[in-house]
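User: I would dearly like some help making sense of a protein record. This is the protein in question:
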Amino acid sequence: MRSFSTILLALSLIFAISCVLTQKEVDPWLGTISGNRPAEMDITGKCHDEQGSTFFGWGEDYLRQEGNKISGVLGDYNIKGAVSGEVVYLVFLYKNKV
């Protein structure tokens, strides 16, 4: 439950500042907010939403982690992110916009 709360808090932070963050600023921002700490976990993986790629579903999703950097796809969104210790920060991009 603590991990879920941490991820939810991180996503809320990203959502709150997404209004002022441009795609060019994503990598520097991720480095700043994560403190460039080494990752203590690997979230590389692939999943498929049971609802498929319908209106309410995400479809097939994957995340790839190299060091503390994350990239991937979640439905129609490209994902960029960072793992700092046991905290994950994700930015969702759609048509090159945060």
Q: What stands out?
A: The chain has one domain: 2-93. The first strand starts at residue 45 and ends at 48. Residues 2-93 form one domain. The mean pLDDT is 79.
